[in-house]
Amino acid sequence: MSTAKAPQGVDPMPAPQLADTERQTAAGKVLWHFTMSLDGFVAGPDHAMDWMTGFSFRAGLVEEYAATTGAVLGGRDGFDAYPDAGGIYGGAWQGPVFVLTHHPDDAPPATGVTFLNCDVAEAVRIGLEAAGGKNLEVLSPTIGRQLLERGLIDEIDLHIVPVLLGDGIRLFDNPGGVPVRLRLLNGHDHAAAVNVRCRPVGT
């Protein structure tokens, strides 16, 4: 390891930092948004979310997304695991929630939740109309994948946390499919690799 110091009067080279995205805007976008583990899971087995503790996020992040989200679109599995729509963003957000399901008749009623049995494109149309110019946030890996295939996702917004789950529900599970190339919105190089360096806790 080098111990050389910068000459007096010359600032040392600043450590390179990962460029963050611009703050989220309410622009009528279809936004596929998740906190994700380093190995690509957005939920544990059976939609478990107890792993999402002990992490720090940018100050004001929850308020930022609560303010720019006009409506939420989710799937039946996620709703069955977490039927309380008032828990979205820890209760900081209130608004219309749409749950896309093939079996709306056996869904238990829930305040603020509308069950849809339609094509995903129609669900997006309904959700965007309800969002009133703000973003429609997609909180389902399965629905997000279908919308991506249809060209109906405007942005994918991920908060990658330093944990390896090894099992659970992946953001994008598409065996046999072709790679989907994305345009990185961090910084100026839209094809840049994002470097993440971690150590196991306790070492």
How much β-strand is present in the residues? 15-25%
Strand order of the largest sheet: 5-4-3-6-1-7
Radius of gyration over C-alpha positions, nearest whole angstrom: 20 Å
Task: Label the overall shape.
Answer: globular
Number of strands: 8
Going by helix content, strand content and strand pairing, the class is: alpha/beta
Helix content: 10-25%
Weakly predicted, low-confidence segments? 1-18
What is the average per-residue confidence, as pLDDT, rounded to a whole number?
Answer: 89
How would you describe this structure to a colleague?
By secondary structure, this protein is an alpha/beta fold. Helices cover 18% and strands 19% of the residues. It is built from four helices and eight strands; from the N terminus they run ββαβαββαβαββ. A six-stranded parallel beta sheet has the order 5-4-3-6-1-7. The protein starts with 29 loop residues before the first strand and ends in a 33-residue tail after the last strand.
